[in-house]
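help with this.
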Amino acid sequence: YRCSKVAADKNSKAHIKRDHFDLPEPDIDAEYLKEIFPDPPVCPIFGTEFETEPYNDNSPELDRCVGEKGYVKGNVVWISRRANSIKGDSSVEELRQIADWFEKQIKKGK
């Protein structure tokens, strides 16, 4: 995977956001991204194998665990594009509320 490109891209975007939102200085590099890349290469959330074709639901994407902390070591993980899309900028509590609501709707339909 293109860890060097991802590191450069995330650091570049982080610098722009950092100026506006008082985020910490990014400290990720290609070597760190290789270290944290899952082995075997599967999404830790869905268990699906990563695919290298871009913009695929199973493409690996780098995500911040806590958005406010920025792209720094210990706060970034590789997850699938699909998982990242679902998560968006939601909090854990918001995701639980969505899941709980859908479970109730499904139970009503039985």
The first strand starts at residue 60 and ends at 64.
